[in-house]
Design a protein that fits this description.
Elements: H1 5-17, H2 21-30, H3 34-43, H4 47-54, H5 65-74, H6 78-91, H7 97-109, H8 113-119, H9 125-137, H10 141-148, H11 155-167, H12 171-180
Helix pairs in contact: 1-2, 2-3, 3-4, 4-5, 5-6, 6-7, 7-8, 7-9, 9-10, 10-11, 11-12
């Protein structure tokens, strides 16, 4: 099974189903299957060990970040989880929709919506969408509309704004916003210089 992570994961599932968790964990360790190993350990009540596997003094990658952050938060280590996300965000120059979304979701889920809204990078379209959604959940529909209004011509945000306008009973404005959105030009087929699009 040397080098075959897929086979190792399947074998580990079968071993876990038989109650042979230590053997399953060893198989995953041998194949360096960090994320599946962390999840296996957490499912079987070995949360501290799972955290150590997923975060051995440094995050190995963002793919297992939601699992790691959830485990840390479960153990009352929310600020540590947030610091990990912040460090990864800083290493990307503050970009990365997955990381921004992770951070905003974490703050929101732990009763820190005001902080999520206040600290969201509103120059990022993804973050604006998250913040608008949080505002709507708080009953602040007018604030969400105001936030998205300057971006009404953007394809995604314009549509999101149109939906909010409908909820406010402003259907005519919603239709106008939806029609005025910037849409990318569809590719044009020119038989002299390109292959057909099919």
């Amino acid at each position: 099974m040397n080098g075959d992570g897929s086979a190792a994961r399947r074998l580990a599932v079968h071993l876990e189903e038989q109650g042979r968790v230590d053997e399953a964990a060893e198989i995953l360790r041998q194949q360096d299957e960090v994320w599946p190993l962390g999840e296996l350990l957490a499912r079987n009540g070995r949360v501290d060990e799972a955290i150590e596997v997923l975060y051995p003094g440094g995050v190995r990658g963002a793919d297992h970040l939601p699992v790691l952050c959830g485990l840390l938060a479960e153990r009352g280590r929310f600020d540590e989880a947030l610091a990990i996300v912040d460090a990864l965000l800083e290493s990307t120059g503050g970009t990365g929709h997955d990381l921004i979304g992770q951070r905003l979701a974490m703050l929101s889920a732990h009763g820190r919506r005001a902080q999520a809204i206040a600290e969201a990078p509103l120059d990022d379209w993804f973050a604006r969408g998250w913040v608008a959604e949080l505002m709507v959940e708080e009953g602040r529909l007018d604030d969400a509309v105001e936030l998205l209004w300057p971006y009404r011509k953007d394809e995604g945000e314009g549509l999101e704004l149109a939906c909010l306008l409908v909820r406010q009973g402003r259907a005519e404005e919603a239709i106008a916003v939806a029609r005025a959105r910037d849409r990318p030009e569809p590719p044009r087929y020119d038989p002299r210089i390109s292959e057909p699009p099919f």
